[in-house]
Amino acid sequence: MLLLRRRIPLLAALLRSASASASSLLPNPKNVPYREGFLWSSCYFHGTGHHTSREGVPIDKELLDPLALIKDEVSEISNRMRSMVIAEIPELTLAAGYFFRAGVEGKRTCPTVLLLMASAISMDIANPSFGSQNELRERYMRVAEITELIHVSSLIHDDVLDDAKTRRGMDSLNCVMGKKLAVLAGDFLLFKAFSTAAVSLDNTEVVSLLAKAFSNLVTGEFMQMTITPAQRCSMDYYLQKTYYKTAALISNSCKAVAVLAGQTVEVATLAYQYGRHLGIAYQLIDDILDFTGTSASLGKGSLSDIHQGIVTAPILFAMEEYPQLHEIVEQGFDDPSNVDAALEYLARSKGIERTRLLAAEHAKLAADAIDGLPESNDEYVLISRQALKDLTQKLIKRTK
Predict the structure, then answer these.
(1) Domain-embedded: residue 17
(2) How far out from the chain centre does Cα 354 lie?
(3) In angstroms, what CA-CA distances link 14 with 82, 116, 340?
(4) What transmembrane ranges does the database entry give (predicted)?
């Protein structure tokens, strides 16, 4: 990402199907307005377990599979992005589309969160300037596409900077096509993201939020590259870097959805806070899995952070129990014996457990932000809010 700092002003200036088929006896909701279509599709995830919303409305538990609620839209987004990354040069098309091929799109967490957030803050449109419900839904989908493009671009550039060999259980793009083409592919995805934002969103505040998120990504990478020994031992520094590198994109994109919806500053702030705490919780679990997972389950090398000299929450918590680890961390991990020593201290400490507790705290703060939204009796709003809350638990309980 450091390679892209000079491109931010240019990018800022530039600033939607494959789904599981329903029974042929069932009506086709494709041309039904979004709200009716959402509720139509929801009935096919009916189960016996129940949640109760804050407003006291019972919600069927099986309705709350986050991806199932918006799977048609996420699938359409995946298809559209495969079309968006076509370039004039065949090699660039192959490189830019590497992580958008069917079957290797990843978890698609960003589109899932953003589309659920859009549903969770939905309101009757009193101001015609915001457009119809279907027009708004299309714009929300555009934000989801743009966010995913920025996300994948950041992964590609991260892999170049880290000389990573694998990503999503396969060879990294830089290994397959070389670092230069990988950098250009990441740049091309950013161009597509911000040119799409400028043309399709027609909202300078939203474009500014997306540009800010990208700038934060660069800042976080720079913080990681220029870290001092003292900063390497600081939990505050680690959490700030984690926000920039992982949480800034989803938090600002959640806020962008609220801005597009014409929501109040208070609602936009709650949307932002949900994304911020969800992103931090996600990264904390990632940091645990780097120590406890396998390369096969992670889709990338385990222990990759510490071998790159990157100190994360589990080690920082272990330092509090074993002050002698402080000197090892300050020295760095170029010496394999320092890596071995740090892992020994971590195994004896409660670093993993305390990191998991911190992730749970951030997950709760994300859920609290959803509970803080204005009350609603609208079924699809309530279902979406519960799905967002359930997603916080799903992400912190993941094993890959």
Answers:
(1) no
(2) 23
(3) 21, 27, 48
(4) none
User: 60 pairs with which residues across the strands?
Assistant: 50
State the helix-helix crossing angle for 235-242 and 265-292, rounded to 10 degrees.
Answer: 110
The answer to the question of residue 24 being in a domain is: no
In a domain, 18, yes or no: no
Identify the domain containing residue 203 by its residue range: 34-396
Number of helices followed by number of strands (H, E) in the chain: 21, 4
Structure token pair of residue 148: 């995913």
Write down the pLDDT at residue 66: 64
**How far is the C-alpha of 78 from the C-alpha of 108, rounded, in Å?**
9
Taking 50 as the pLDDT cut, the residues of the chain under it are: 1-34, 36-50, 53-55, 57, 60-63, 125-128, 297-298
* Residue 278 near residue 384, CB atoms below 8 Å: no
> 129 φ, ψ to 5°?
-65, -20
Classified as helix, coil or strand, 398 is coil
58 membership: H or E segment, kind and range: strand 58-60
Task: Please indicate, yes or no, whether the overall pTM of this predicted structure exceeds 0.85.
Answer: no
Residue 320 included in any domain: yes
Q: What is the DSSP string of 112-174?
A: HHHHHHHHHT------GGG--HHHHHHHHHHHHHHHHHHHHHHHHHHHHHHT--EETTEE-HH
- Give the model's pLDDT for residue 340: 92
The sign of the CA dihedral 302, 304, 307, 310 is negative
**376: number of CA atoms within 13 Å, CB side?**
20
